[in-house]
Design goal:
5 strands, Tetracycline Repressor, domain 2, two-stranded antiparallel sheet, three-stranded mixed β-sheet, CBS-domain, 3 domains, about 70% helix, MgtE N-terminal fold, 21 helices, mainly alpha
Length: about 475
Amino acid sequence: MAENQESKESLSENLQQVIALLDKQKLVEDLVHKQEMPHHDLVESLVHKQNLAKLQQKLDALHPADVADILEALPLEQRLDVWELVKVERDGDILLEVSDAVRQTLIADMNSDELLAAAEQLDTDELADLAPDLPKDVLQDLLDNLDAQNRARLQSALSYSEDAVGAIMDFDIVTIREDITLEVALRYMRRLGSLPDHTDKLFVVDRDEILRGVLPLKLLVVSDLDAIVADVMSDDAVTFHPEDVAEDAAKAFERYDLVTAPVVDASNKLIGRITVDAVMDLIREEAESDMLSMAGLREEEDFFASVWKSVQNRWAWLAINLITALVASRVIGLFEGSIEKIVALAALMPIVAGIGGNSGNQTTTMIVRGLALGQVASHNMQSLITKELGVALLNGLLWGGVLGAIAYALYGNFQLGLVMMAAMTLNLMLAALMGVVIPLYMNKFGRDPAVGSSVLITAVTDSGGFLIFLGLATLFLI
C-alpha cells in the first residue's frame, strides 16, 4: 500500500514538473519574443533549444509507462509538444502504454515513416496490440519488412478476436527436449544469455514441437544435474488453446497462481505462451470497461477529446435515461389529484424511489460480479431471487418502519406512516427481483450485463416506486 501511494505521488510529481517546464518555456519565449535586441532570432532559437533540452532530459529519465500517464493528463496541444520530444526508439513502447483514445491522437500526429520506425522496435506480440490502430499502408509495409516467421506470427495473432487467448499470447518462448539432462539444459540457458520476461518454466517439446510438459526453474535449480528432463518435468501443466476466451484464461491464472502458461494448437503443438503481465493488462482493461459500461459510456474517452466526440460517446444512455424519466413523470401525472390533496406525498415519494434504486444497484453489482466469476447462471436464478427477496423484505420492514415513524412524527398521520412502510418494502422487493433478473437475462441473450444494468434498474425502481407509493396513498388516504 505504501509503495502504491509512493508511486502515485511520484507520478503526480513528474507531471507537475513537466507542466512547470512547459509553462516556463512558454513564458520565457514570450518574453524573449517581445524584447528588442541584436540577433533577436538567434537568441530566440537558443532559448527555445535550451528549454526543449531540459524537458527532453526529464522525459528520457522516465519509464515509458510514466511518460504515457503524463501524455494522458495533458491537453491536446501540450500533449503533442511533449510527444515530439520523445525519442523515436521509445515511441513504440509508449504507444503501447497509453489508452486507446490517446493513442489515436498520437498516431494521427505521426507520418508513415515515424509509425513504421516505432513499430519496428516492438516484438511480434506487441505489434499485434498496436496493429489495429495503424493505418493500412503502414501495417502492410510493416508486414513486408518482417521475416517469414514473424510475419506468420503477426498474421496469426491478428486473425483472432480481441477477447481470445491468441490475441494476447507471447511468442518469446524457451524450449528444451525431454531426453537431455538438466546439466545440458542449464548450459543451453547460459548460452542464451538472457531469458524472456516472466520466465518461470521451460517448455519441453519433441522434435515436432509437440508439448510434452514443463520444467519449472525451481526444480531445475534444486534437482540432480544428471537427472533427465523427462524424469523431473511436470506433464500435467495448465494449457490453453488460441481460440479460448481470454477472460477464462485470466481466471485460471488467478485460480492456479500461474506466471506463464503454454498455448497449444489442436494437435498439442506449442505455438506460444501467456504471461501474467498480459493477464493483468486484460483484467485491468475489463474492469475499466465494466466501469464505463455501467456509467453508460460506450468506450474509453480521452479527457481532452473534442466536445463532439465526447457527445457521441455519451448520448445513447442519456437518451434512454430521458425516456425512462418521461415514463416516471407520467406515472406521477396519474396521481396529480392525490398529490394536490396530500402535499406530503410530493416530499416523501423521492425517498421511496431513491432507496429502491440504491438497493437494486447493490443487487445488480453482486449479480454482475457473480456472472464474471462464473458463480451465477440461470440454473440458480430461483435461489438467488428467493434470497434477495428475503433480504429486501427484512430491509423494507426495518427501514420502512423507521421512515414510517418519521413520516408520522412530521405529519401526524398514522396511516401515512403505514403507507410509507408498505411502499418502501414493496419497492425494495421489486428492486431485488429486477436486480437479479435483468443482468441474468441480458447475459442469457448474449449482452454484457454490466452495460446499462444500473440505468434499467433505476428506471424500474423510480417508476415502480412512484406507482406503488402513490397508488397505496390513493387507496388508503384519499
